[in-house]
Structure formats: structure tokens, C-alpha cells
Amino acid sequence: MPPPVLQIDRHIVAFAYDGHDYVAVAKRYTSTLLQEASAHSRNSQYTLVFAHALGSHKETWEPTISYLLDLELAAMHNGGSAKFTPMWTIDCPDHGESALMNKGTTSRVSCHAYAAAIYSLSQCNFFRDTGASHLVLVGHSAGAIAVALSNKFFRSSNALPPYSLVLIEPWMIDSGLQASFPHLGEVTAGLVASAKSRRDAWASAEEARAYFTSKKVWKTWKPEVLELYLFGLVPSPCSSRTTVCGVSLAFPKSRESEGYGDLSEGQAALTELKSICGILPTHIIFGSYPGAVPKAVRESICDATEGRVMASVTILPDVGHMAPQQSPRSVATALRNLRLDISRRESLCRL
């Protein structure tokens, strides 16, 4: 059976949040072969929407999506059926190419606004053409926060909620943990300091590529993901002239450091999960290396006494907080293996 031909469509999502007008660019990934197979399948079908981490952008999900399509094709070849079609990614409005379309934004776009973008995408007519497929939201790190927070928009509008959530390495630190584990403050402070001191402008894309490939952090990423990360570079004007001079990150390091220091969004997401987990099957995926999300934080996120009963918890071997960048194949396999067909009734019985 030949490999699936990936078709990519680009869409603009316009929405408002907290008195500000935004646009976010979304991409739809489909395969004609899988669409035809899905049309004749009697099994449940799922539409995945991927939300990226702080400082990243939607294209970095493409290797994971590509591996998922490979797994779908392999399942069909062995007599099974496809589960996922189509798949979507969406930018936070001040990340990636969306940042160029929101130049009037003078401060960091919050995870609450990113959540509004995700909800708004689901309500667009071009998205609803998906049909009867079940909506599954997948978020990584800050994207996981946005995925959790998006449910307040579904709830307040009485819109049909997502069928399931998948949170990958969610960056959610309960306020009570900060007092009990002082070293968590050191972790946060380290991330803030690292973002502030990081280089974010280069003479060319080639120079930027050489920089990232020489640094320990990015050496752990798969080359195809790093190459897509460079898609987030934008023309950078010279400070003394009006002509374009070099490239810089679309998401400024000042905003990235601010995002690492703001724990309130993750705490709001934890509060939201108290009600979500009893209604929507919520799956957690962690890397085996604790890194930015220490054991105490992980246990807090999955604290059943706080109502956060997860439908499943998956630990991926040999990866850390940046699992989708370090091993998109492992993340794709984990997503393919999740019991997304677990019913809301089954999830509720776990409480």
C-alpha cells in the first residue's frame, strides 16, 4: 500500500478575547487515502487539534502528524481501521506566522486567549465540515494549559464539548506546592533567566540554524522538528535603519520569560481540570525524564482527591519535557494507543 499523500490547507481564525481582536492561523492535515477509508469505517473517528508549547508554533507538530498517518496506514494494511482524520494545528496569536498578523499586540498573548483561539477554530464553518468525527484536543506544555482552559468557552456557550483531552507534559504548578517545595521556584527562575539570556536574532536563517544545532538543548530534538522550528523565524529590522536586516524569533524572548514566570494560568487550568475530569476523559502523557515537570508536580496534576482523575497516564521512555520535539514517533505511537473510546460514563466511574 503506497504512503499517504499529506494534504495541507491553511485557514484564518478571527476572534476576540478580553477586549482585543486577534487572528490565529490554523492548518488542516488530511490524506485522501485515509479519508476514503474512514468514510467506509463503522468505528469511531477522531479529529485531533494540536496546541503547541510556549515559544513554539503549529508547524512543529508536523512530524508527529506524519508518524500518526504512517501508523494509520499500517493499521489499515493489517486489517484495522483509521482513527484520526483530519488533524489540525493552530498557533497562539503571538507565535509563528500568526505573530506577523497581530503586530499591534504589545504584550504576551495569554493561554486564556490561546484557549479562545482553539474554541473559535472548533466553531468555524470550515472546521465543522469535519462531520460526525469526535473532537480531541491535544496540548503540549503551555498548549496543554490552553486546551484545559478552552473548556470554559465550550461550557459558557453551551457548545458541544470536546470528546476527550490529551495533555502532554502540562506546565501546571499548584499554588500549594510552591510553599511545600521551594526548589520549584528555582526551576521557574532558571527557565525565566534562560529565556532572558537566550540569543534571539541572527544575520541569516543559516546562522540561526548553526546556533541551534550547536546548543545542548536543541541537540536533543529530532532534526526534522528543529528545521520546522526555524519556520518561526521572521525578518528582523536593523536598529539603526528601516531596511530588513537578519532574522529573529517571532515570539520575543522577553515574552517567553514572562510566560515561564506566570504560574497563574497553569493554576487556573488545574481548577478547570477538577470539573473536566469528571465529564471528559482526560489523558496525560509524561516523559520519563522529570526535568521541567518534577515528580511532585506530576502527582499534583493527577491528584484524584482534587477531582483530577485521569483516564490514563502514559510515560514515554528516554524523553523529557520536550517530548514532541525529542521523539515525535513516540508521541504519535502513544496517541494511537490511547483508549479514546473510553466513555464519559467510564471516566465518571473512576471518581
Number of strands: 11
- Percent range of helical residues: 40-55%
Q: If strands are numbered along the chain, what order do they take across the biggest sheet? A: 1-2-4-3-5-6-10-11
The biggest beta sheet reads:
8 strands, mixed
Low-confidence stretches: 343-351
Q: Tell me the number of helical segments per DSSP (H or I, 4 or more residues long).
A: 18
- Binned strand content: 15-25%
What average pLDDT do the residues reach? 88
First and last CA, distance: 44 Å
**Class from secondary-structure proportions:** alpha/beta
Task: Label the overall shape.
Answer: globular
Order of helices and strands: EEHEHEHHHEHHEHHEHHHEEHHEHEHHH
Radius of gyration from CA coordinates: 20 Å
How would you describe this protein?
The chain has 351 residues and is of the alpha/beta class. Helix content is 43%, strand content 21%. The chain is built from 18 helices and eleven strands. It has helices at residues 32-39, 62-77, 96-100, 111-123, 125-128, 142-149, 151-157, 175-180, 183-197, 205-214, 216-219, 223-229, 253-261, 264-276, 295-301, 323-326, 328-337, 344-349, and strands at 6-17, 20-31, 46-51, 84-90, 134-140, 164-168, 201-202, 233-237, 244-249, 282-287, 312-316. The strands form two sheets. An eight-stranded mixed beta sheet has the order 1-2-4-3-5-6-10-11. Strands 7-9-8 form a three-stranded antiparallel beta sheet. The longest helix has 16 residues, at 62-77. The relative contact order is 0.14. Residues 343-351 have low confidence and may be disordered.
